């Protein structure tokens, strides 16, 4: 009789361990599904870069700062999204020094491709209220000019585009890429 009770206790322990193992497996699988980034296709974050192409700037030198701010982004989904980071794709000889969001007013003027910071912000009334992209929440229906400022480390520099990593309110991660290239070259300016 005592052996039967001991066996019964052992069975309970085995069953409890099995249940714990199953629960742990479910938790790990859920974490892995949420931790993986999904290659987005302009949903829920719509990136309007007017298609593929490239912008070139030819009067520059190492150490110059430029705005690569030609992208209009908007949340076309049904829930808020949070931007985690913005990076350059295939960058050579440049780094991001600022990445922020600027509200686009009724003028719908993008900051564009120019020296950074801009000499004048008259045409960009929301420039001084821009917010850092890291941690920025974009509500459904909201849109912004994605401002990306870079510093050149050499006269010739290049990036094949921008990558935006973000997540929805459930924690699902997305990656949106714009393959609008940015080319910097020397047009006879002296190095100093």
Strand percentage:
35-45%
DSSP summary, beta strand count: 15
Unreliable spans are 188-192
Q: What is the number of helices?
A: 1
Distance between the termini: 95 Å
Helix/strand order, N-terminal first? HEEEEEEEEEEEEEEE
Net shape = elongated
Class by helix and strand content?
A: alpha+beta
Chain-averaged pLDDT: 83
Question: Helix proportion of residues, in percent?
Answer: 10-25%
Indicate the radius of gyration in whole angstroms: 25 Å
* Major β-sheet profile: 7 strands, antiparallel
Question: How does this structure look, described?
Answer:
- By secondary structure, the chain is of the alpha+beta class.
- Helices cover 18% and strands 42% of the residues.
- It contains 1 helix and 15 strands, in the order H-E-E-E-E-E-E-E-E-E-E-E-E-E-E-E.
- The chain has one helix at residues 2-35, and strands at 37-39, 45-48, 53-57, 65-69, 71-75, 81-89, 94-103, 112-115, 131-132, 137-138, 143-152, 157-159, 161-168, 173-178, 180-184.
- Strands 2, 4, 5, 7, 8, 9 and 11 form a 7-stranded antiparallel β-sheet that branches. The chain has a 5-stranded mixed β-sheet with strand order 1-14-13-6-10, with no helix packed on it.
- A hairpin with a 4-residue loop joins strand 13 (161-168) and strand 14 (173-178).
Short description:
This protein has one helix spanning 2-35; strands at residues 37-39, 45-48, 53-57, 65-69, 71-75, 81-89, 94-103, 112-115, 131-132, 137-138, 143-152, 157-159, 161-168, 173-178, 180-184.
